[in-house]
Every structure is written in structure tokens, then in C-alpha cells.
Design goal:
heterodimer; A: 214 residues; alpha/beta; Rossmann fold; 8 helices; globular; B: 395 residues; TIM Barrel; ten-stranded parallel beta sheet; 12 helices; 12 strands
């Protein structure tokens, strides 16, 4: 299975990237114990800042951004992390999400993660990120992880990481994504030419209207 | 192969001189531009339709009728005519009228329009834009092909025994192109009726259009109008030509950077990489334009946007001169070589008349004496059948 890591951190050293990596380590360990093979890759939004702003301003998607979209569309599971800068999901992360083809994450299990300076913003994962991924029609695991500097040494924190990783791994193996993208696919609205193109329904009301039948 | 130009009718401040032309100046300038386009050997002049400043072209047929009077060969078209907010009855009347005055040198491109506030100005609802456009065209198609039309739809009051006048010239409606940048239903409608499909690819990356054009081609074949490669496709282009690449870039950069479309986004060079815009030597424009065929297959119409973003009249005329002398002749030659032999030209009035009548004289409808209405009595034209069946409204 393909596991994709998406970090809204600005660098390899950022706390968010570290959290996402910790979660992926926990998940890989669980997978290993169950002899599940995982192919892991990563997207660092800090590397895509110019590409994201060009896409936001003028709808021009760079090759790098299109490659990131393809990675997202083909992932069986996603760990998505963002820093919290000012009481909300950091701009680069939400901007990245805003320019994505809306079809790429349909049915994809996601583990939500965020880091911040104080515990006061712990609900960002559940109030902002969860609704964002609901819009993308992804499946967010019930346990989301929010970390401040104080959490890293706390034994309860690693339990939480493990629990979250277990949920994501279980969802990835559940067959939910395949079912939604297979049998369930046409029940969702898709844009023509999207990264995850479906069959065109020639019997839709508007298609019949195009032929003067309505 | 038809090669021409289109204008969206923007009145934009010239960022170099700081001057904004008056509406009157710009309208007169566009007439001069159209005349020049004919003079340099272009085949088509097309004008947009907008109903808000800073655009002037609210009534394309008035402008095109004036241009028809001062030109003799160039085909007059639109880019686009709004099929949503215009009453299809008015479109049928106005463009048939224009067709008569221009002796058939008319076709049109239909678009839905994406300026949300315009819809309510004309009593329409943008949320219904797609079904509205589709239904309006179904009606327009009938109005141009039937002397008497009974019609009932969702978005317009029903018609009983209505005759759109004048009838199209020679009873051959203007050819219609459907413009769309993302809607498969529009491509489907174009394919169903055997009309043309225009992908105005100039502000967007090409990948976006390749799929839509190929969908239209497949459906054109599906409906039996010809093979996929015989479908009638038009594409947009945009160029600024200089003696050298550097000169062109230096001259055009202030217009690019201050453009209401491009300004504030990716740089001119990045935009050139991902859209049809070319700022460079004539050869560079030729090279870039020749890539369109690789993306869309052999196509029938190419329209350059030449007067956008505050370029002064003199510069636009010079650009047309360069296009006509250094670019278009080469494009014609290169497009002809390797072009599929079974790929047709875009229809013209002459070719449509020929297809309909062969060597017979075309129909020239002559109305019967005034009956006061269209509902009672016989056909409104002398040459139609004695009794046209009339469907009365249901109650």
C-alpha cells in the first residue's frame, strides 16, 4: 500500500514535519508487525510555495504541483500535518489544499496532525482540518494529533501517536477507499478533466438537454 | 485554414502613455483594426460581447454591420455572443439581419459568459447558466431552420406560430461555433448539431483543453457528422512580435505587467511557457503556434487576440502588419503540409449554400401579404407549403 506524508512545515527540520514523520514511524512499525508492505513518499509544502501561489493567482499549475496531485490521487492513506500560526491552519497548507483538484482525495483515509505553540489551539485539527478534509470527501480517522513543545516527552503522547497510526492503518486496509472509488464513484460530483476522471454520464439532465431532448 | 483576430473590446489604460482611450476613440479604433485585419490578409474578425465597463461591445451586430460596410472579404464573427443572457429570438433576428447586410460573411461563436452580475441585468439567473444556454441554443437552432416555430421550454415564455425575420440569407443559417473552456455539455451540444467547437485556450494551460477538444471530436463522430479528425475546431492565440525576442519582450512587458488578466501573477516568461502567449520574434510566434496542432489535431480556425490590455492603435496596426506579412503566410504553408487530406475547411456561407442546394438557386423567401399575426392562416412565405400545421397552446 502507498502511504503519503504531507507536511505543511517549511523545512525538513520543522516540528510539523517531525510530527508527521513520528506518526509514519509508528504506522510503519505496526505495518511491519502485520507483514503489510508500505511504500512511503512525502510532500513538503515548503518546497511548493511559489507553485501554490501561481496556481492561486492565475490557475497555472506547475509540473511540480501536478506531480504532487498525482501522488495524492494514488495514495492509499495520507498523514497530513500543518503548523498552527495564528489560531488556525497555516496559510501555505490551506492554500495548497485550495488549489488541489477536488477529486484527488475522494475516499482516502487521512490522519490529521498539527503542531502549535500552546495547547490553546488543540481544536484546530478537529474544527478546521476535519471540515477541510470532509470537503475533499476524504475519510479522516477519529483520532487526530495535536502537539505542542511540551508533548514530546510525555509517554501518553506516544500512546496517542500509536492509536492514531493504528486507526489509519486499519482504515487503509478496510477496502473503503477502493469501494468508494469503484462502485460508489458516480454518486459524487466530479469536474470534467479532473485528475480522477470518471465516465461521463450521457443520460444526465444537462447532457439530454444538450441534445434537445428535454 | 482560417486565420484571423479577435478583440474582447476592453478599454484599458495604456501603461506607457498613461492615457485611457475614450469609448468613442476605442470603438472607432476597432473599426480601423478590422479594416487593417482584412488588408493584411486575415480571414476573420471577431468581437466579444460585454455589458459592463471597461468594455464597449454591448451590441456586436451593430459594430459588425458597420465593419461589413467598409470591408469586402473578411468574415465577421463574435467571441463570444452570450447565449444565456440574450433572448435567442433576438439573436436569431439580429444575426440573420447582419448576414443579409454582410452578404453572408457572418458566423458566430456562442458562449455562456462568466460575469455573474450580468445575468440579473437581463432577467436571468447565473445558477441556471448551463441549462439556460443549452435550451436557448436548441431554440435558436429551430428558429433559423423553421419558418414557423412552436416552442415551449423552461426558461422563456412559449412561442406559438412564431416566425423569426428576416429568414437567414438564402435560407442558410450562419455557422455556429460553441465556445467553452471546461464544460463537456457544451462540447456535446456542438457535436450533436455538427457545429464547430472553439477552445479559447489563451489564458489557461493547454492540458485543460486537450481533453475537451478530443471529447468533442469523439462525439462529433458518434453523431455521424464525419470522423473525429473532421470535426470543426477553432483555437485562440496571442502574440506580440518584435524584430528580436529581446525587443519584443522589452516593448510588451509593461502591457503584460499591467494587464488586468496577467498582472500580479506569474511572470511573462512563465505565462509564455504554460499558455499560448508568445512575445518574441516572428519565428518564435510561428514555432509556438505550430505546437497547437500537436495538441488539438488539424483545426480550422485560429484567432489571435491582438488589441488587449491598452496597446495603442498604432501598435496594434503594426502588429497586424507583422502578423500578415511575416507570420500568417508561413503558418498557412506549414499547416497545409502534413494536413490530413480528408480534413475539411471551416464552413463558409458559400460552402453551406453549395451543400444545401448544389447547383440549384438558393431559396429567397418572399413574405405573403400582412396577416396581422403569425398564428392564423397559411404559411407566412409564398414558397412554403399551403398549410403549415399550427399547434395551439395547451391549457
Amino acid at each position: 500500500m502507498k502511504l503519503l506524508l504531507l507536511s505543511g512545515g517549511m523545512s525538513e527540520e520543522s516540528t510539523t514535519t517531525r510530527l508527521v514523520r513520528e506518526l509514519s514511524r509508528a504506522l510503519m512499525k505496526l505495518a511491519d508487525e502485520r507483514s503489510i508492505e508500505l511504500e512511503v513518499s512525502a510532500i513538503q509544502i515548503g518546497d511548493l510555495l511559489d507553485d501554490v501561489s501561481a496556481a492561486l493567482a492565475k490557475n497555472l499549475k506547475s509540473e511540480k504541483l501536478k506531480a504532487a496531485e498525482r501522488d495524492l490521487a494514488s495514495a492509499d492513506g495520507l498523514i497530513a500535518g500543518t503548523p498552527v500560526y495564528k489560531a488556525g491552519v497555516a496559510g501555505p497548507f490551506s492554500s495548497f489544499m485550495h488549489v488541489l483538484d477536488p477529486d484527488v482525495l475522494v475516499g482516502t483515509p487521512v490522519l490529521l496532525a498539527a503542531t502549535g505553540g500552546s495547547a490553546r489551539h488543540a481544536l484546530v485539527v478537529d474544527t478546521e482540518m476535519r471540515s477541510l478534509f470532509a470537503f475533499m470527501r476524504a475519510l479522516a480517522a477519529p483520532t487526530a494529533v495535536y502537539a505542542t513543545g511540551n508533548d514530546w516527552g510525555d509517554p501518553d503522547f506516544s500512546k496517542r501517536l500509536k492509536r492514531a497510526a493504528f486507526e489509519l492503518l486499519t482504515l487503509m486496509g478496510s477496502g473503503y477507499r477502493e469501494a468508494v472509488r469503484g462502485e460508489g464513484w458516480n454518486a459524487y460530483q466530479h469536474a470534467f478533466g479532473s485528475a480522477a476522471q470518471q465516465e461521463i454520464d450521457f443520460d444526465s439532465e444537462f447532457m439530454r438537454m444538450a441534445r434537445g431532448e428535454v | 485554414m482560417q486565420i484571423g483576430m479577435f478583440s474582447v473590446s476592453d478599454i484599458t489604460r495604456d501603461p506607457v502613455s498613461g492615457q485611457t482611450p475614450s469609448e468613442h476613440e476605442r470603438i472607432k479604433a476597432v473599426v480601423a483594426i478590422a479594416k487593417k485585419a482584412e488588408e493584411v490578409g486575415m480571414d476573420v474578425f471577431a468581437i466579444g460581447e460585454h455589458h459592463n465597463p471597461p468594455f464597449f461591445s454591448s451590441t456586436p451586430t451593430t459594430l459588425l454591420a458597420n465593419i461589413a460596410a467598409v470591408t469586402s472579404k473578411i468574415m465577421l464573427s463574435t467571441a463570444t455572443t452570450l447565449i444565456t443572457t440574450n433572448d435567442p429570438v433576438r439573436i436569431a433576428e439580429e444575426y440573420a439581419m447582419l448576414q443579409h447586410l454582410a452578404d453572408g460573411r457572418v458566423d458566430l461563436m456562442l458562449g455562456r459568459g462568466n460575469t455573474a452580475p450580468v445575468y440579473p441585468w437581463f432577467g436571468q439567473d447565473i445558477r441556471k447558466s448551463l441549462p439556460l444556454g443549452l435550451e436557448h441554443y436548441n431554440l435558436l437552432y429551430k428558429l433559423w431552420r423553421n419558418d414557423v416555430v412552436d416552442w415551449e421550454g423552461k426558461y422563456r415564455t412559449p412561442l406559438q406560430g412564431f416566425t423569426s425575420t428576416p429568414r437567414p440569407l438564402d435560407d442558410v443559417p450562419p455557422f455556429v461555433w460553441h465556445g467553452s473552456i471546461r464544460t463537456p455539455e457544451i462540447a456535446e451540444q456542438a457535436a450533436y448539431y455538427g457545429d464547430g467547437f472553439f477552445a479559447n485556450n489563451i489564458f489557461w494551460p493547454k492540458e485543460h483543453f486537450i481533453q475537451l477538444v478530443s471529447f468533442y471530436r469523439q462525439r462529433y463522430e458518434h453523431y455521424g457528422h464525419g470522423t473525429a479528425r473532421q470535426a470543426i475546431v477553432g483555437v485562440g492565440a496571442q502574440a506580440y512580435i518584435g524584430k528580436t525576442s529581446q525587443q519584443a519582450k522589452a516593448e510588451y512587458r509593461p502591457y503584460f505587467d499591467n494587464s488586468p488578466i496577467y498582472g500580479g501573477g506569474p511572470s511573462m516568461e512563465e505565462t509564455e511557457d504554460s499558455t499560448p502567449l508568445t512575445v518574441g520574434s516572428a519565428q518564435e510566434v510561428i514555432d509556438k503556434t505550430m505546437t497547437f496542432r500537436e495538441n488539438f489535431g488539424d483545426y480550422q480556425r485560429l484567432l489571435f487576440l491582438t488589441d488587449h490590455g491598452g496597446l495603442p492603435l498604432g501598435t496594434v496596426l503594426d502588429q497586424l502588419e507583422l502578423l500578415g506579412s511575416e507570420v500568417i503566410p508561413v503558418l498557412r504553408k506549414e499547416m497545409a503540409s502534413g494536413r490530413g487530406e480528408d480534413v475539411p475547411e471551416a464552413p463558409t456561407h458559400e460552402s453551406l449554400v453549395k451543400a444545401k442546394y448544389g447547383d440549384e438557386p438558393p431559396r429567397a423567401p418572399r413574405p405573403r401579404a400582412n396577416r396581422g399575426d403569425n398564428v392564423t392562416g397559411t404559411s407566412p412565405y409564398e414558397d412554403s407549403e399551403e398549410v403549415t400545421p399550427i399547434q395551439y397552446p395547451r391549457f
